Amino acid sequence: MSQTAPWWRDAVIYQVYIRSFADGNGDGVGDIAGIRSRLPYLKSLGVDAIWINPWYKSPMADHGYDVADYRAIDPVFGTPDEAEQLIEEAHRHGIRVIPDIVPNHTSDQHAWFQAALAAGPGSPERLRYVFRPGRGPDGAQPPNDWVSCFGGPAWTRLPDGEWYLHLFAPQQPDLNWQHPEVRGEFEDILRFWFSRGVDGFRIDVAHGLVKHPELPDLPPRTEPAVLGPLSRRDPAEHRCRQHVDHPHWDRDEVHEIYRTWRKVADEFPGDRCFVAEAWADTPERLAAYVRPDGLHTAFNFDFLMCGWDAKDLRAVIDDSLAMLGAVGAPATWVLSNHDVMRHVSRYGRRTVTRWTAGEPYVPDGPLDLDLGTRRARAAALLMLALPGGAYIYQGEELGLPEVENLPEAVLQDPIWERSGHTDRGRDGCRVPIPWSGRTAPYGFSPDHTSTAPWLPQPPDWADRTATAQTGNATSMLELYRTALHLRRDHPALGDGDMTWLETPDGVLTFARDPGFVCAVNLSTDPHPLPPHTTVLLSSAPVTDGLLPPDEAVWLEV
Ligand code: NOJ
């Protein structure tokens, strides 16, 4: 790794889903005080940065992805002063801070949307959003056939007869990015937070901002796979991997916005960084977001969605490195986030499923938690050995599984309601983190807090707490910690190149210079370890020179 390369080319970024990370004030909801109290943990884990899900003032219709004021912190999470203190303290721990920015839509409680509602049809206030008359003689049909990613139509009608667009919940009206005020406002918001010391932004729905000016109906059933796992659309519509001109996803014009944002970031000292949540049909389309005059990095959802299959994984790795490398961008790797089933539970199903974007993930068969955990350990070593940067979703370092049996009465994700109670949504991967103790709330809230965490934690998580795992050499936490520290120190890891080595089917083996080899066995038979001088780290013990199925190893050669 070059000493002068910007930090984001190979950073390990830890995702803090703030309401579930740590509760500092005892109200059962995670907050900034909680994050501050856990900075020593994050430092000892060995991450380079944290990405914090939206912390702005919000009515929480989608847990903060409905922003009412982009310059204010929601009181449930803390105060603006606390945010600045967090940034400063994190920097002192050597950890950079990347908040989420939500430019595709605001909250319906945002001052602009309230003004648009009050001003009525035809007013300039409505031009900042996407208002249209309906179709049909009395305008009772929505303006087009677009659907919300959370289920149901993407349009809601107001009492005055006009409809407004929301690609997500009705409380999340889409902004009109053709409007200069919208562009100017977001550039100001970026400057506001950059000047308070943030090191970058994760851009929500980065591929959705620009809509076709005529808002045409969706194309017939040739539509590509660009909606991401939140989509409630018919999966059969989303199988092809060719780009199709889509009326609201991944339109070419969106890149012009990010060229301006790049200039804004470049106004500030140090290496500030944008990471795009961009669902693109193909790796080529994804690479278009991360050019030297555009955004810096993007999530690699192909890696996340890939099943536990050597051929598929190798193809994703090759495509990602080739396409991103061609535009000079680093690859990134991610296994889980707050929108998808945790990977211990995905990998713990015997059937290998390649998960198609646009298709909700439906677990196939009963969960084998041991199998899922073994594979998750191996996957972590694979991810952290690949060239580029990596994302860790809070709790994956504790090996947390998806909580699949939350009672219906506690479900809060808008998907649950919008799907007419057919899709339980994403609460199962958002259960508050267990820190210590033998019973819930496992140190999530301060001792003696009487308010329960906002989602109930399973009764059998005592052995999964950070405290229970600390110092236990066989724990997931110690595996991550060791891997992150080795990764930081080893000259072969991080940014750079890799070379595949000859291996039997089902085994992935690659070398990185100088002197490093990673091998992952995704087959059902043990395989001999490649030649080496030392075993640096393995996801489970290796004996007799054999790498057992569902295990990975880092070797010095
Ligand atoms: C993507 C975010 O990751 C998800 O949590 C959110 O619901 C949607 N964007 C809408 O903002």
From TrEMBL:
SUPFAM superfamilies: (Trans)glycosidases. CDD domains: AmyAc_OligoGlu_TS (cd11332). GO terms for molecular function: hydrolase activity, acting on glycosyl bonds. Transmembrane segments: none annotated. It comes from the Bacteria. Pfam families: Alpha-amylase (PF00128). The keyword Flavoprotein does not apply. Signal peptide: none annotated. Keywords: Glycosidase, Hydrolase. Gene3D superfamilies: Glycosidases (3.20.20.80), Oligo-1,6-glucosidase, Domain 2 (3.90.400.10). It is an enzyme of class 3 (hydrolase). InterPro entries: GH (IPR017853), GH13_cat_dom (IPR006047), O16G_dom_2 (IPR045857). Residues 15-430 form the Glycosyl hydrolase family 13 catalytic domain. Its EC number is 3.2.1.-. Belongs to the glycosyl hydrolase 13 family. This is Glycoside hydrolase family 13 protein. It comes from Streptomyces bullii.
